[in-house]
């Protein structure tokens, strides 16, 4: 299998695969750091901002990638608010860069990270934290030693979904990527390019790999979810 | 009972939104992205002259070709090169002998900034830009022509890391017009209306710097029995159509 795959994949395919995995890994890490406090807040706040923030977080789930990509292109561009900010910070314009792609992926997969964690925190209820408080654990201490371990299935689901969703990302990359080898040319856009250029053999190898990968991810996810807790995400 | 009403409602919904597609008399045209702007005006003129409506699909020539091969319902194909029309004929997907050169395109180096591009294109020899947008050379002849120009000027290696590729020439234009890329190799037709630059600055690339961008159209087999498709093929040869095409920066 190993040798055969090596013969089937050219260097540009390997480059795209490596880039895709790097993007997905970084996106997942950023999302876990971002989504965990956000999900906690959503699960416990009584603020009036809860509903609008919740809607905002879910927005990337229903918006077409073309809308997200278009607005990211405008926002990241030299005249856009994000572009102005990144230029003022001396980072330059981030469209057509790996960092720009990372920002896009984080936005694109945000609901896939927030929702499972949110649900896990909600299912847990307030009781474990109250018990921890009576045992004189500080709120932060209790969060790390009680809440996070209890929500581990949710966190794991969030990580797997964010990773898989980023690997499967296409529209946003197409809009803000610019198809630069080693920078923004990921597997999904490479497959698209192969198909459009009628290079079906190369497209098949990558597409089959993608199919297998996605199936395995969903299989892992199904194993993760105990049958009693349906509707966890 | 309620289920039956819901079901009938759904059927009505589907009929309402799918019905008109099946009945209207139209010609379906696949158009290379560089020709999108003139096509819009040609469609209006064609409907005025013949009463037939056009349904236009815009994309990279290679992308549209792949779609046509796989059963896209196009009746007329307007490519950005001659090879694609020839290939469609030799594969039996287009009517033999129907190929016709409807336009000869011009490449332009364009910037949305009014003072960036000089009339000789010397800006390419400076480092006054971070990104240079062009169309994917594998899919779009204008992208291939842009690579040729850079290669002939000996600048391809120097600027390779500054190139950003749009899926087609329309996306390259979008990258440049939104100023995400300071410069872009585009089709003259994208930045010229009635022979005048709409805004920004441009260098019209001399046509001896790249292979000629002869663009052929062809009647696809799906349109072989459609009078509207024939009418459109005829219309494209008419003086009225030629005038519109010239006004958008094409030679003929």
Q: What is the CATH fold-level name of chain A?
A: MetI-like fold
- Count of DSSP H/I helices of chain B: 10
Q: Give the percentage of residues in beta strands of chain A.
A: under 5%
Q: What is the average per-residue confidence, as pLDDT of chain A, rounded to a whole number?
A: 89
The CATH homologous superfamily of chain A: MetI-like
**Annotated CATH topology of the largest domain in chain B:** D-Maltodextrin-Binding Protein, domain 2
Supply Rg of chain A. Answer: 20 Å
What's the architecture of chain A, going by CATH? Orthogonal Bundle
Q: What's the helix-strand series of chain B?
A: HEHEHEHEEEHHEHEHEEEEHH
Into which percentage range does the β-strand content of chain B fall? 15-25%
Radius of gyration of chain B equals 21 Å
CATH class of the largest domain in chain B: Alpha Beta
DSSP, total strands of chain A:
0
Helix coverage percent of chain A:
over 70%
Main sheet overview of chain A: none
Structural overview:
The complex is a heterodimer of chains A (233) and B (252). With 233 residues, chain A is mainly α. Chain A has one domain (18-224): MetI-like (MetI-like fold). Helix content of chain A is 76%, strand content 0%. Chain A is built from twelve helices and no strands. Chain A has helices spanning 2-8, 11-44, 50-62, 65-76, 81-88, 98-124, 127-134, 139-150, 152-167, 171-176, 187-196, 200-224. In chain A, α11 runs antiparallel to α12 (200-224). Chain B has helices at residues 2-23, 36-50, 61-69, 83-90, 141-152, 156-159, 169-177, 188-191, 227-235, 239-247, and strands at residues 26-32, 53-59, 76-78, 100-105, 107-111, 132-135, 163-166, 183-187, 192-193, 196-197, 201-204, 213-219. Chain B is an alpha/beta fold. In chain B, 46% of the residues are buried. In chain B, β1 (26-32), α2 and β2 (53-59) form a beta-alpha-beta unit. Chain B has a five-stranded mixed β-sheet with strand order 2-1-3-12-4, with helices on both faces. In chain B, strands 7-6-8-5-11 form a five-stranded mixed β-sheet. Chain B folds into two domains: 27-104 and 212-247, D-Maltodextrin-Binding Protein, domain 2; 106-209, Periplasmic binding protein-like II (D-Maltodextrin-Binding Protein, domain 2), CATH 3.40.190. The chains are: A mainly alpha (233), B alpha/beta (252). At the A-B interface, α4 and α11 of A face α3 and β7 of B.
């Amino acid at each position: 299998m190993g040798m055969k795959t090596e013969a089937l994949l050219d260097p540009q395919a390997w480059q795209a695969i490596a880039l895709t995995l790097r993007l997905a890994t970084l996106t997942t890490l950023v999302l876990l750091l971002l989504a965990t406090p956000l999900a906690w807040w959503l699960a416990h706040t009584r603020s009036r901002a809860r509903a609008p923030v919740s809607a905002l977080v879910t927005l990337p789930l229903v918006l077409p990638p073309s809308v997200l990509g278009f607005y990211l292109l405008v926002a990241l561009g030299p005249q856009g608010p994000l572009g102005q900010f990144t230029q003022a910070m001396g980072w330059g314009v981030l469209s057509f860069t790996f960092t720009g792609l990372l920002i896009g992926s984080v936005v694109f997969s945000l609901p896939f990270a927030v929702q499972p964690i949110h649900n896990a925190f909600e299912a847990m209820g307030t009781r474990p934290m109250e018990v921890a408080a009576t045992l004189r654990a500080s709120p932060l201490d209790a969060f790390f030693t009680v809440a996070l371990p209890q929500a581990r299935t949710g966190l794991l689901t969030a990580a797997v979904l964010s990773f898989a969703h980023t690997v499967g990302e296409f529209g946003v990359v197409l809009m803000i990527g610019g198809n630069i080898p080693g920078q923004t040319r990921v597997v999904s856009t490479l497959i698209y390019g192969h198909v459009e250029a009628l290079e079906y053999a190369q497209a098949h190898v990558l597409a089959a790999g993608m199919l297998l990968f996605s199936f395995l991810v969903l299989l892992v996810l199904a194993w993760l979810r105990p049958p009693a807790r349906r509707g966890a995400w | 009972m309620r289920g039956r009403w819901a079901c009938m409602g759904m059927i009505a919904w589907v009929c309402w939104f799918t019905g008109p597609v099946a009945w209207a008399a139209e010609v379906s045209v696949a158009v290379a992205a560089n020709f999108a702007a003139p096509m819009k005006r040609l469609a209006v003129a064609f409907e005025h002259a013949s009463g037939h409506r056009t349904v236009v699909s815009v994309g990279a020539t290679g992308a549209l070709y792949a779609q046509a091969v796989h059963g896209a319902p196009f009746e007329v194909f307007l490519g950005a090169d001659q090879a694609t029309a020839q290939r469609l004929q030799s594969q039996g997907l287009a009517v033999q002998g129907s190929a016709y050169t409807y336009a000869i395109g011009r490449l332009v180096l364009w910037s949305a900034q009014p003072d960036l591009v000089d009339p000789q294109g010397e800006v390419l020899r400076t480092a006054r830009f971070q990104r240079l947008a062009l169309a994917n050379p594998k899919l779009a002849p204008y992208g291939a022509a842009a690579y040729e120009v850079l290669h002939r000027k000996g600048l391809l290696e120097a600027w390779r890391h500054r190139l950003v590729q749009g899926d087609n020439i329309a996306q390259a234009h979008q990258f440049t017009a939104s100023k995400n890329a300071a410069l872009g190799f585009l089709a003259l037709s994208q930045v010229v209306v009635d022979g005048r630059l709409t805004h920004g600055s441009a260098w019209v690339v001399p046509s001896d710097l790249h292979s000629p961008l002869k663009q052929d159209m062809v009647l696809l087999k799906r349109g072989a029995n459609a009078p509207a498709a024939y009418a459109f093929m005829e219309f494209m040869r008419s003086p009225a159509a030629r005038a519109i095409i010239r006004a958008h920066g094409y030679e003929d």
